[in-house]
Amino acid sequence: MNYLLILIFSALIVNPCSKENKESSQPKQESASNQNEVKNTADVKDDGRVFLGRYFNGKLLVEDNKTYEKNALSWAKDTMENYDKYMDYLRGIAKKHASYKEGKQEYFFDKDLDEFSKLTTIKKGDKFFISSKTGIIQSEITGVFINFDDMVGSGIGFYAVADAGSNKFADYEVVICSKNSNMTAFNTNKLTGNSGPIAEIKSLILKKAKGLKVKDESSGKEKPEPVTSVDTSELAVFPGSFTNKGAKEYIAGYTKRQSFDNFAYYIIIVNDDGEIVKVFNELVKDSFTYETIIGVIDINGDGIYEVLTEDGYYEGAGYNLHKFDGMGFNVIASGFFFGV
C-alpha cells in the first residue's frame, strides 16, 4: 500500500474553507442532441447534496467523497492503517453478500445493505439530475459498485451507479450530480485564441510569473530557463458570473510544468476589461501538486457559476468542485482521486 498517495490525496481534497485571495453572459454549451430532455422534475426533491460522477467501463459512477472523508478516521486509530482497514470493510461486504473470489476485482449490488450506511448517503432509487458537457438528464441510482482494482492507486473503490440509459458519455468523462432542476449544463469549452480578454489575462499572468523558471528536461539542458511568454495552451479561460449574479466575468487558470515533477499554477477572476476581480488561487510555484480548471457550472440556477478543478501531481489526480460564498471559494464536492 503506497501511503504517500493517501497523504497526497488528503492534501488535494481541499477542506471546506474559503480560498481567499464570478451581463449574465452564459458559457456556450455543446449540443445536447444526444442527451435526453429532463422529465418528471416534480419527483426529484432538492436536498442540497452535490456529487461528482464519472463514466467508467459502461457504468455511470457517483462518488460520495464527503461520507468517505467523514468516516476516514473511523477505520483505525493509526492513520496509516485507515485505508487498509477501509478496504477490509469493503472486502467483508463482498464476502458476505456476493460470490467473492480472490483476484476478482468488480462487484455490483442491486440492493441497499446495512453496511452501506457507513459508506454513503446515496440510496438505490434516489433520483438525480446529471449534468455533462452535452446537456442534462434525469437518472436513478440502480445499485452500488465496488472495484478493488482501485487499490492500485489508493482510489475510493465504492460508488453508487446511476442509470445512463441510452445516453452517450466518453470513458472517464466527469459529470456533476444534484437534485436541483435549475442546474445548467456543464461547460467545458474553454476560450481559445485571443477571444475575450485573453490578451490582457496573458499580460497579467506574465507579470505575476516574473522570476518563474522552467527546466526543459527533454532538451538535455540542466539550467532552468526563465518564463518569457504565456502560451494559450497553458491557459483555461471560461466566461460566466463568478462573484456576482449578472457580472460579465472570466475565470482564468494558468498551469505550467516547471520540471518532470514540479508545477506552477495561478487562478484569477477578471472582468470584461481584463482587470482582476478576485484571486481564486494565488501563484504557487515549485510545487509537487497542481490545479487546473476543467469547466464551470451553475448547480442551482442562482446565476453564479461553480468551478470544477483537476487537482493532482505528476502521476495522479482527482477533482474538486468549488462554490463562491461571498468571500472565497469552498469545495462542495470531490472525487475520483487516483494515482500510481
Polypeptide structure, described:
The protein has 340 residues and is mainly beta. The protein has 2 domains: 22-27 and 187-339, no CATH class; 41-178, no CATH class. The chain is 13% helix and 37% strand. It has helices at 3-12, 65-70, 82-97, 198-208, and strands spanning 50-56, 59-63, 106-109, 127-132, 135-147, 158-162, 174-178, 213-214, 225-226, 235-240, 249-259, 262-271, 276-287, 289-297, 306-313, 316-324, 329-339. The strands form 4 sheets. It has a 6-stranded antiparallel barrel with strand order 1-2-6-5-4-7. Strand 1 and strand 2 form a beta hairpin. The longest helix is centred in the first third of the chain and has 16 residues, at 82-97. The model is unreliable at 20-34 (pLDDT under 50).
Summarize the structure.
The chain has 340 residues and is mostly beta strands.
Largest sheet: 6 strands, antiparallel, barrel
Helix content: 10-25%
- The total number of structural domains is 2
> What is the mean pLDDT?
88
Net shape: globular
Instruction: Provide the succession of SSEs.
Output: HEEHHEEEEEHEEEEEEEEEE
| Weakly predicted, low-confidence segments | 20-34
Strand content is 35-45%
Structural class: mainly beta
Radius of gyration, in Å, reads 21 Å
Number of helices: 4
Number of strands: 17
Widest sheet: strand ordering: 1-2-6-5-4-7
The end-to-end span amounts to: 10 Å
Blueprint (SSEs and pairs):
Elements: H1 3-12, E1 50-56, E2 59-63, H2 65-70, H3 82-97, E3 106-109, E4 127-132, E5 135-147, E6 158-162, E7 174-178, H4 198-208, E8 213-214, E9 225-226, E10 235-240, E11 249-259, E12 262-271, E13 276-287, E14 289-297, E15 306-313, E16 316-324, E17 329-339
Antiparallel strand pairs: 1-2, 1-7, 2-6, 3-5, 4-5, 4-7, 5-6, 8-9, 10-11, 11-12, 12-13, 14-15, 15-16, 16-17
